[in-house]
Amino acid sequence: MSRLKSNQPASPVSILQQAFTEPHSVAYRIVHAIVNLFIFVSCVGMALESVDTLNAQYRDTFYALEIVTFVIFSAEYICNIAYARNRLRYIFSFWGLVDLVAIVPSLLMLTVNLQVTQGANVFRLLRVLRVLRVLKLAREAMQQMQAGAAHKRNPLVANLIIYFITLFSALMIFSSLMYQVEGSLYSAAAKAAWEEQYTAENPGQALPENFEPVDPLSGNIVPGDKQFYSSIPTAMWWCIVTLTTTGYGDMYPVTVGGRIIAAFTMLMGLVLFGILMNIVGKTLMVMLFGESLEGHAS
User: Fold this and answer.
1) Average pLDDT, stretch 90-101?
2) Alpha-carbon span 223 to 84, nearest angstrom
3) Which of 3, 32, 37, 239 has the CA that lies 20 to 30 A from 229?
4) What is the pLDDT of residues 245-291, one digit of tens each?
5) How is 85-130 classified by DSSP, letter by letter?
6) Contact, 189 vs 120, CB < 8 A?
7) What separation, in Å, do the N-terminal and C-terminal C-alpha atoms of the chain show?
8) What confidence score (pLDDT) does residue 1 get?
9) Which residue has the higher pLDDT, 293 or 79?
10) Model confidence over 178-210: pLDDT tens digits?
11) Helix ranges (DSSP H) in the chain
């Protein structure tokens, strides 16, 4: 009788449970591949959405992508709670909080009145906070590390995957932070608010030719020729140059907040450089001396 039961096809409920409780099952790998894909796609969409011309032209597309991403991440979060051995413990665990943070900004954006908040700083902040969903990739990095340590995957491949996950996460986080902290000072919403305030305080006077906001921390003026971070893709160029310790010099922060972010970006660049050199060194040892990579998974 037990043999007959073992030959029966798995029910949809059991397959769904495997997708969230058994890391070695096919269903688990498929679900997490889909989630990782949408993490990447949604982050790219968020970056492109910060470009004013693209946002105006493809707003409905970005909105639809956000809804689909929100539904997928919410379903994953609910299933993780449903199949957790200790649901309360999962909710307040690191991974539970990461999964929650990945959907809260989208939930607030989709439930508030978009017409009212479209130009508000709070809406811009919510859009940028969506970048925290890249933290979900840390789960994939942990699994790659465990697979490499257990010799279920080539440690070199596992190390490279971990490196590129870290690089992508750092690129998205620091670019988004710079776009929010420094770019928000001279955004279209900030300029519109300044024009309204200037007109109210100086009735009948023409607006100044250039909009030069003030850094709220230092009180220094941000001149027009140093307003670099108008979008996340633009900030990405600066971030890549900084992470690679190149220091090209064509873009640089001029506010206190921006310089603090730049300092952490430089330190992260050194960390990434050390990880890459470690991978390259192990690869050269194998190529030159034929040393096995077993036991070298980081």
Assistant:
1) 92
2) 53
3) 37
4) 887 778 999 999 999 999 999 999 999 999 899 888 887 887 777 65
5) SSHHHHHTSHHHHHHHHTTHHHHHHHHS-HHHHTTSHHHHHHHHHG
6) yes
7) 46
8) 43
9) 79
10) 999 999 898 888 888 888 888 888 888 888 888
11) 2-6, 12-21, 26-49, 52-57, 59-82, 87-91, 94-101, 104-111, 114-117, 121-129, 137-149, 155-181, 188-201, 232-243, 256-289
Residue type, 118: Q
Tell me the backbone φ, ψ of residue 221, rounded to 5 degrees: -80, 140
User: pLDDT tens, 2-57?
Assistant: 444 445 566 776 878 887 888 888 888 899 999 999 999 999 999 999 998 999 99
As assigned by CATH, the class of the 188-289 domain is mainly alpha
Q: Which residue in the block uniquely carries the two structure tokens 């970006």?
A: 265
Q: Averaged over 87-102, what is the pLDDT?
A: 93
Q: Which residue has the tokens 């798995």?
A: 10
Domain 11-151 sits in CATH at: 1.20.120.350
| Backbone conformation region of residue 245, classed left if phi is above 0, alpha if psi is from -120 to 50, else beta | left
Q: Domain boundaries in the chain?
A: 11-151, 188-289
Q: What is the pLDDT of residue 2?
A: 45
Distance CA 227, CA 230 (A): 7
User: Which residue is listed with tokens 């099952």?
Assistant: 25
Contact in structure between 214 and 220 (CB atoms under 8 Å): yes
| Per-residue tokens: 84 | 């957790």
